[in-house]
Protein backbone atom coordinates (compact mmCIF):
# COMPACT_ATOMS: atom_id res chain seq x y z
CA UNK A 1 0.00 0.00 0.00
CA UNK A 2 1.17 3.55 -0.67
CA UNK A 3 1.81 5.66 2.45
CA UNK A 4 -0.86 8.30 3.01
CA UNK A 5 0.16 11.62 1.51
CA UNK A 6 0.61 14.65 3.70
CA UNK A 7 -2.57 16.71 4.02
CA UNK A 8 -2.13 19.12 2.42
CA UNK A 9 1.12 18.59 0.54
CA UNK A 10 3.65 21.30 1.22
CA UNK A 11 3.72 24.19 -1.26
CA UNK A 12 5.85 27.31 -1.60
CA UNK A 13 4.93 30.42 0.31
CA UNK A 14 1.72 31.82 -1.08
CA UNK A 15 1.06 28.84 -3.37
CA UNK A 16 -1.85 26.45 -3.15
CA UNK A 17 -1.33 22.83 -2.06
CA UNK A 18 -1.13 20.31 -4.88
CA UNK A 19 -4.63 18.90 -4.47
CA UNK A 20 -6.27 22.30 -4.41
CA UNK A 21 -4.17 23.61 -7.30
CA UNK A 22 -5.09 20.66 -9.47
CA UNK A 23 -8.75 20.92 -8.61
CA UNK A 24 -8.77 24.62 -9.53
CA UNK A 25 -6.71 24.16 -12.68
CA UNK A 26 -8.30 24.39 -16.15
CA UNK A 27 -9.18 20.95 -17.36
CA UNK A 28 -8.12 19.28 -20.58
CA UNK A 29 -10.10 17.34 -23.09
CA UNK A 30 -12.83 15.07 -21.82
CA UNK A 31 -13.10 11.58 -23.18
CA UNK A 32 -14.98 12.17 -26.43
CA UNK A 33 -18.45 10.68 -26.49
CA UNK A 34 -17.97 8.52 -23.39
CA UNK A 35 -19.03 10.91 -20.65
CA UNK A 36 -15.86 10.27 -18.65
CA UNK A 37 -14.24 12.73 -16.25
CA UNK A 38 -12.25 15.60 -17.75
CA UNK A 39 -8.50 15.09 -17.97
CA UNK A 40 -5.80 17.40 -16.70
CA UNK A 41 -3.55 18.85 -19.35
CA UNK A 42 0.05 17.59 -19.08
CA UNK A 43 1.23 21.17 -18.70
CA UNK A 44 -0.94 21.55 -15.61
CA UNK A 45 0.42 18.30 -14.21
CA UNK A 46 3.93 19.61 -14.63
CA UNK A 47 2.98 22.86 -12.96
CA UNK A 48 1.34 21.04 -10.07
CA UNK A 49 4.34 18.83 -9.45
CA UNK A 50 6.64 21.86 -9.55
CA UNK A 51 4.40 23.67 -7.07
CA UNK A 52 4.14 20.63 -4.78
CA UNK A 53 7.90 20.18 -4.80
CA UNK A 54 8.44 23.70 -3.42
CA UNK A 55 9.94 25.03 -6.61
CA UNK A 56 11.89 22.30 -8.39
CA UNK A 57 13.24 24.72 -10.98
CA UNK A 58 14.74 26.79 -8.17
CA UNK A 59 16.28 23.57 -6.85
CA UNK A 60 17.80 22.95 -10.27
CA UNK A 61 19.55 26.30 -10.10
CA UNK A 62 20.79 25.65 -6.57
CA UNK A 63 21.62 21.97 -7.08
CA UNK A 64 19.71 21.02 -3.94
CA UNK A 65 18.65 17.59 -5.17
CA UNK A 66 21.82 16.71 -7.02
CA UNK A 67 23.42 14.66 -4.25
CA UNK A 68 20.60 12.11 -4.12
CA UNK A 69 21.43 8.86 -5.85
CA UNK A 70 18.80 7.16 -8.09
CA UNK A 71 16.56 4.79 -6.16
CA UNK A 72 15.65 1.42 -7.70
CA UNK A 73 11.86 1.34 -7.72
CA UNK A 74 9.87 -1.55 -6.36
CA UNK A 75 6.17 -0.63 -6.07
CA UNK A 76 4.31 -2.34 -3.24
CA UNK A 77 2.01 -5.30 -3.70
CA UNK A 78 -1.51 -4.70 -4.97
CA UNK A 79 -4.06 -6.49 -2.88
CA UNK A 80 -6.26 -8.96 -4.70
CA UNK A 81 -3.94 -9.57 -7.66
CA UNK A 82 -4.47 -13.27 -8.40
CA UNK A 83 -1.01 -13.88 -9.83
CA UNK A 84 0.70 -12.49 -6.74
CA UNK A 85 -0.82 -15.06 -4.43
CA UNK A 86 1.21 -17.76 -6.20
CA UNK A 87 4.46 -15.81 -6.52
CA UNK A 88 7.24 -15.77 -3.95
CA UNK A 89 7.61 -12.57 -1.99
CA UNK A 90 10.01 -10.22 -3.80
CA UNK A 91 13.31 -11.03 -2.13
CA UNK A 92 15.65 -8.20 -1.37
CA UNK A 93 13.20 -5.43 -2.27
CA UNK A 94 12.40 -4.17 1.21
CA UNK A 95 14.31 -1.20 2.51
CA UNK A 96 16.72 -1.84 5.32
CA UNK A 97 15.67 -0.37 8.65
CA UNK A 98 19.17 1.04 9.08
CA UNK A 99 19.06 3.12 5.87
CA UNK A 100 16.77 6.08 6.58
CA UNK A 101 17.86 7.88 3.39
CA UNK A 102 16.45 5.10 1.21
CA UNK A 103 13.31 4.96 3.32
CA UNK A 104 12.72 8.70 2.94
CA UNK A 105 13.18 8.65 -0.82
CA UNK A 106 10.92 5.62 -1.21
CA UNK A 107 8.28 7.38 0.87
CA UNK A 108 8.62 10.55 -1.23
CA UNK A 109 8.16 8.52 -4.43
CA UNK A 110 5.07 6.79 -3.07
CA UNK A 111 3.57 10.05 -1.85
CA UNK A 112 4.12 11.68 -5.24
CA UNK A 113 2.55 8.79 -7.13
CA UNK A 114 -0.39 8.81 -4.74
CA UNK A 115 -0.79 12.59 -4.91
CA UNK A 116 -0.57 12.93 -8.70
CA UNK A 117 -2.39 9.79 -9.81
CA UNK A 118 -5.06 10.10 -7.12
CA UNK A 119 -6.27 13.54 -8.19
CA UNK A 120 -9.81 13.90 -9.55
CA UNK A 121 -9.77 13.84 -13.32
CA UNK A 122 -6.62 11.74 -13.56
CA UNK A 123 -6.96 8.61 -15.74
CA UNK A 124 -7.76 5.39 -13.92
CA UNK A 125 -7.47 3.09 -16.94
CA UNK A 126 -6.54 3.44 -20.61
CA UNK A 127 -10.12 4.23 -21.62
CA UNK A 128 -9.96 7.42 -19.58
CA UNK A 129 -7.22 8.67 -21.95
CA UNK A 130 -7.77 10.70 -25.12
CA UNK A 131 -7.59 8.53 -28.22
CA UNK A 132 -4.08 9.59 -29.23
CA UNK A 133 -2.60 8.97 -25.78
CA UNK A 134 -4.34 5.59 -25.53
CA UNK A 135 -3.02 4.60 -28.96
CA UNK A 136 0.54 5.45 -27.93
CA UNK A 137 0.19 3.46 -24.71
CA UNK A 138 -1.28 0.33 -26.30
CA UNK A 139 1.38 0.36 -29.01
CA UNK A 140 4.07 0.26 -26.33
CA UNK A 141 2.77 -2.60 -24.20
CA UNK A 142 3.98 -6.05 -25.25
CA UNK A 143 2.05 -9.18 -24.35
CA UNK A 144 3.16 -12.65 -23.29
CA UNK A 145 0.09 -14.87 -23.04
CA UNK A 146 2.18 -17.94 -22.27
CA UNK A 147 3.68 -16.31 -19.17
CA UNK A 148 0.83 -13.90 -18.49
CA UNK A 149 2.68 -10.60 -18.36
CA UNK A 150 2.57 -7.16 -19.97
CA UNK A 151 5.73 -5.15 -20.54
CA UNK A 152 5.66 -1.45 -21.45
CA UNK A 153 8.80 -0.88 -23.45
CA UNK A 154 10.71 2.38 -23.16
CA UNK A 155 13.28 3.03 -25.92
CA UNK A 156 16.83 3.51 -24.63
CA UNK A 157 16.06 1.44 -21.52
CA UNK A 158 17.22 -1.97 -22.81
CA UNK A 159 13.98 -2.54 -24.72
CA UNK A 160 15.74 -4.41 -27.56
CA UNK A 161 16.97 -7.03 -25.13
CA UNK A 162 13.51 -7.35 -23.62
CA UNK A 163 11.97 -7.81 -27.07
CA UNK A 164 14.58 -10.45 -27.87
CA UNK A 165 13.77 -12.17 -24.59
CA UNK A 166 10.04 -12.15 -25.35
CA UNK A 167 10.79 -13.89 -28.64
CA UNK A 168 12.76 -16.56 -26.77
CA UNK A 169 9.87 -17.09 -24.34
CA UNK A 170 7.50 -17.40 -27.32
CA UNK A 171 9.75 -20.01 -28.97
CA UNK A 172 10.63 -17.78 -31.94
CA UNK A 173 14.32 -17.49 -31.02
CA UNK A 174 16.48 -20.21 -29.51
CA UNK A 175 18.56 -17.89 -27.37
CA UNK A 176 18.83 -14.27 -26.28
CA UNK A 177 22.43 -14.40 -27.50
CA UNK A 178 21.49 -14.94 -31.15
CA UNK A 179 23.30 -12.30 -33.21
CA UNK A 180 20.57 -11.04 -35.52
CA UNK A 181 19.42 -7.55 -36.39
CA UNK A 182 16.52 -6.86 -34.06
CA UNK A 183 13.08 -6.82 -35.71
CA UNK A 184 11.01 -4.59 -33.45
CA UNK A 185 7.60 -5.60 -34.86
CA UNK A 186 7.42 -9.15 -36.22
CA UNK A 187 6.79 -12.08 -33.85
CA UNK A 188 5.72 -9.69 -31.09
CA UNK A 189 2.19 -9.11 -29.76
CA UNK A 190 1.14 -5.62 -28.65
CA UNK A 191 -1.96 -4.68 -26.68
CA UNK A 192 -2.93 -2.52 -29.67
CA UNK A 193 -3.33 -5.76 -31.69
CA UNK A 194 -6.12 -7.01 -29.41
CA UNK A 195 -9.82 -6.31 -29.01
CA UNK A 196 -10.97 -4.04 -26.13
CA UNK A 197 -12.29 -6.94 -24.03
CA UNK A 198 -9.02 -8.83 -24.52
CA UNK A 199 -7.07 -5.76 -23.47
CA UNK A 200 -9.17 -5.27 -20.33
CA UNK A 201 -8.75 -8.90 -19.30
CA UNK A 202 -4.97 -8.77 -19.59
CA UNK A 203 -4.70 -5.46 -17.79
CA UNK A 204 -6.70 -6.92 -14.92
CA UNK A 205 -5.08 -10.35 -14.65
CA UNK A 206 -1.52 -10.16 -16.01
CA UNK A 207 1.69 -9.09 -14.28
CA UNK A 208 2.55 -5.59 -15.53
CA UNK A 209 5.98 -3.98 -15.48
CA UNK A 210 8.24 -1.39 -17.08
CA UNK A 211 11.83 -0.23 -16.74
CA UNK A 212 12.91 3.38 -16.32
CA UNK A 213 16.13 5.37 -16.52
CA UNK A 214 17.40 8.76 -15.46
CA UNK A 215 15.50 11.04 -17.88
CA UNK A 216 18.49 13.12 -18.97
CA UNK A 217 20.75 10.10 -19.30
CA UNK A 218 18.11 8.55 -21.55
CA UNK A 219 18.02 11.73 -23.66
CA UNK A 220 21.79 11.73 -23.99
CA UNK A 221 21.77 8.07 -25.02
CA UNK A 222 19.14 8.79 -27.70
CA UNK A 223 21.09 11.83 -28.94
CA UNK A 224 24.37 9.92 -29.25
CA UNK A 225 22.80 6.89 -30.91
CA UNK A 226 20.33 8.50 -33.31
CA UNK A 227 22.34 11.52 -34.43
CA UNK A 228 25.75 9.91 -34.24
CA UNK A 229 25.03 6.53 -35.86
CA UNK A 230 21.62 6.29 -37.60
CA UNK A 231 21.46 7.90 -41.03
CA UNK A 232 17.67 7.79 -41.11
CA UNK A 233 17.46 9.94 -37.98
CA UNK A 234 20.11 12.32 -39.24
CA UNK A 235 18.09 12.91 -42.40
CA UNK A 236 14.63 12.96 -40.83
CA UNK A 237 15.33 14.89 -37.61
CA UNK A 238 18.94 16.09 -37.67
CA UNK A 239 18.67 18.12 -40.87
CA UNK A 240 15.52 19.86 -39.63
CA UNK A 241 17.10 20.63 -36.24
CA UNK A 242 20.14 22.23 -37.93
CA UNK A 243 17.91 24.28 -40.26
CA UNK A 244 15.87 25.57 -37.33
CA UNK A 245 18.52 26.34 -34.76
CA UNK A 246 21.85 26.98 -36.54
CA UNK A 247 22.48 30.33 -38.14
CA UNK A 248 23.68 30.08 -41.74
CA UNK A 249 23.01 26.35 -41.96
CA UNK A 250 21.82 26.45 -45.57
CA UNK A 251 18.78 24.71 -47.08
CA UNK A 252 20.15 21.13 -47.14
CA UNK A 253 22.28 20.29 -44.09
CA UNK A 254 23.42 16.69 -43.65
CA UNK A 255 22.07 16.50 -40.10
CA UNK A 256 25.00 14.39 -38.87
CA UNK A 257 26.54 17.06 -36.65
CA UNK A 258 23.65 18.12 -34.41
CA UNK A 259 24.97 19.53 -31.13
CA UNK A 260 23.44 18.59 -27.81
CA UNK A 261 22.20 22.15 -27.13
CA UNK A 262 20.52 22.16 -30.57
CA UNK A 263 18.81 18.88 -29.68
CA UNK A 264 17.61 20.39 -26.39
CA UNK A 265 16.24 23.46 -28.21
CA UNK A 266 14.33 21.11 -30.48
CA UNK A 267 12.84 19.32 -27.45
CA UNK A 268 11.75 22.64 -25.93
CA UNK A 269 9.66 23.36 -29.02
CA UNK A 270 8.16 19.85 -29.28
CA UNK A 271 4.82 18.70 -27.87
CA UNK A 272 5.68 15.77 -25.54
CA UNK A 273 2.65 13.80 -26.76
CA UNK A 274 3.91 13.96 -30.35
CA UNK A 275 7.61 13.35 -29.76
CA UNK A 276 9.51 10.46 -31.27
CA UNK A 277 9.34 7.51 -28.88
CA UNK A 278 13.10 7.63 -28.23
CA UNK A 279 12.77 10.96 -26.41
CA UNK A 280 9.09 10.98 -25.47
CA UNK A 281 8.70 11.14 -21.66
CA UNK A 282 8.05 7.77 -20.00
CA UNK A 283 4.87 9.22 -18.50
CA UNK A 284 3.37 9.60 -21.98
CA UNK A 285 4.69 6.26 -23.26
CA UNK A 286 3.48 4.07 -20.38
CA UNK A 287 0.85 6.16 -18.53
CA UNK A 288 1.62 4.99 -14.95
CA UNK A 289 -1.62 6.49 -13.65
CA UNK A 290 -3.84 4.74 -16.21
CA UNK A 291 -2.04 1.39 -15.89
CA UNK A 292 -1.38 0.02 -12.40
CA UNK A 293 2.08 -1.46 -12.86
CA UNK A 294 3.10 -4.18 -10.43
CA UNK A 295 6.82 -3.54 -10.81
CA UNK A 296 9.03 -0.70 -12.02
CA UNK A 297 12.59 -1.82 -12.63
CA UNK A 298 15.52 0.52 -13.03
CA UNK A 299 18.23 0.67 -15.67
CA UNK A 300 20.76 1.24 -12.91
CA UNK A 301 20.29 -2.35 -11.72
CA UNK A 302 18.96 -3.74 -14.95
CA UNK A 303 20.19 -7.33 -14.88
CA UNK A 304 19.16 -8.00 -11.27
CA UNK A 305 15.71 -6.44 -11.67
CA UNK A 306 15.11 -8.15 -15.01
CA UNK A 307 16.01 -11.59 -13.70
CA UNK A 308 13.75 -10.96 -10.69
CA UNK A 309 10.88 -10.33 -13.12
CA UNK A 310 11.69 -13.58 -14.94
CA UNK A 311 11.48 -15.47 -11.65
CA UNK A 312 8.12 -13.91 -10.83
CA UNK A 313 6.60 -14.88 -14.18
CA UNK A 314 8.12 -18.38 -13.89
CA UNK A 315 10.23 -18.21 -17.01
CA UNK A 316 12.35 -21.35 -17.62
CA UNK A 317 15.48 -21.31 -15.42
CA UNK A 318 17.82 -21.28 -18.42
CA UNK A 319 16.28 -18.05 -19.75
CA UNK A 320 18.14 -15.14 -18.24
CA UNK A 321 18.35 -11.51 -19.20
CA UNK A 322 21.36 -11.01 -21.51
CA UNK A 323 24.41 -9.48 -19.91
CA UNK A 324 25.61 -6.17 -21.29
CA UNK A 325 28.01 -6.62 -24.19
CA UNK A 326 31.65 -5.81 -23.45
CA UNK A 327 31.81 -3.34 -26.34
CA UNK A 328 28.74 -1.38 -25.22
CA UNK A 329 29.50 2.00 -23.70
CA UNK A 330 26.39 3.53 -22.13
CA UNK A 331 26.12 7.21 -21.40
CA UNK A 332 28.17 7.64 -18.25
CA UNK A 333 27.46 10.11 -15.42
CA UNK A 334 30.67 11.90 -16.38
CA UNK A 335 29.58 12.25 -20.01
CA UNK A 336 26.14 13.44 -18.95
CA UNK A 337 27.68 15.97 -16.58
CA UNK A 338 29.91 17.29 -19.37
CA UNK A 339 27.04 17.71 -21.84
CA UNK A 340 24.74 19.35 -19.27
CA UNK A 341 27.42 21.77 -18.12
CA UNK A 342 28.14 22.65 -21.76
CA UNK A 343 24.51 23.62 -22.37
CA UNK A 344 23.04 26.97 -21.34
CA UNK A 345 21.37 26.66 -17.94
CA UNK A 346 18.35 28.62 -19.15
CA UNK A 347 17.88 25.99 -21.88
CA UNK A 348 17.98 23.17 -19.33
CA UNK A 349 15.35 24.95 -17.27
CA UNK A 350 13.12 25.05 -20.35
CA UNK A 351 13.63 21.33 -21.08
CA UNK A 352 13.26 19.88 -17.60
CA UNK A 353 9.55 20.72 -17.07
CA UNK A 354 8.71 18.42 -20.00
CA UNK A 355 10.25 15.51 -18.09
CA UNK A 356 9.36 16.64 -14.57
CA UNK A 357 6.86 13.82 -14.07
CA UNK A 358 9.52 11.27 -14.99
CA UNK A 359 11.86 12.78 -12.41
CA UNK A 360 9.17 13.01 -9.76
CA UNK A 361 7.21 9.78 -10.20
CA UNK A 362 10.29 7.60 -10.65
CA UNK A 363 12.42 9.26 -7.94
CA UNK A 364 15.32 10.49 -10.05
CA UNK A 365 17.35 13.47 -8.82
CA UNK A 366 17.48 16.68 -10.76
CA UNK A 367 20.91 17.55 -12.17
CA UNK A 368 23.39 19.76 -10.40
CA UNK A 369 24.41 22.37 -12.96
CA UNK A 370 25.56 25.06 -10.60
CA UNK A 371 28.72 26.92 -11.53
CA UNK A 372 30.52 25.28 -8.64
CA UNK A 373 29.54 21.75 -9.72
CA UNK A 374 30.37 22.37 -13.37
CA UNK A 375 33.86 23.65 -12.58
CA UNK A 376 34.86 20.72 -10.38
From TrEMBL:
Keywords: Carbohydrate metabolism, Glycoprotein, Golgi apparatus, Membrane, Signal-anchor, Transferase, Transmembrane, Transmembrane helix. Transmembrane segments: none annotated. It is a single-pass type II membrane protein. Its EC number is 2.8.2.-. It holds the Pfam family Sulfotransfer_2. Belongs to the sulfotransferase 2 family. Its main location: Golgi. It is found in: Golgi apparatus membrane. The keyword Transmembrane applies. This is Carbohydrate sulfotransferase. The gene is CHST14. It comes from the Eukaryota. PANTHER family: CARBOHYDRATE SULFOTRANSFERASE (PTHR12137), CARBOHYDRATE SULFOTRANSFERASE 14 (PTHR12137:SF66). GO terms for biological process: carbohydrate biosynthetic process; dermatan sulfate proteoglycan metabolic process. GO terms for cellular component: Golgi membrane. One of its GO terms (molecular function) is sulfotransferase activity. The lineage of its organism: Eukaryota, Metazoa, Chordata, Craniata, Vertebrata.
Amino acid sequence: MFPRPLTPLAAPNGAEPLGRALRRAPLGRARAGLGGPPLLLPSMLMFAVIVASSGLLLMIERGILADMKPLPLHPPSREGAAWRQALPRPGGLSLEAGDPDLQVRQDVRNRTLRAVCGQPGMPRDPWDLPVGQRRTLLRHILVSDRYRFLYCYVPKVACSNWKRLLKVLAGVLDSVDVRLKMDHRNDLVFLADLRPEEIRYRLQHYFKFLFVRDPLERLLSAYRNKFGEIREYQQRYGAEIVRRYRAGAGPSPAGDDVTFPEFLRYLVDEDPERMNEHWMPVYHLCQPCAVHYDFVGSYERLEADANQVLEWVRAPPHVRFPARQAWYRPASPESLHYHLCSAPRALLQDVLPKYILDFSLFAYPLPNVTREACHQ
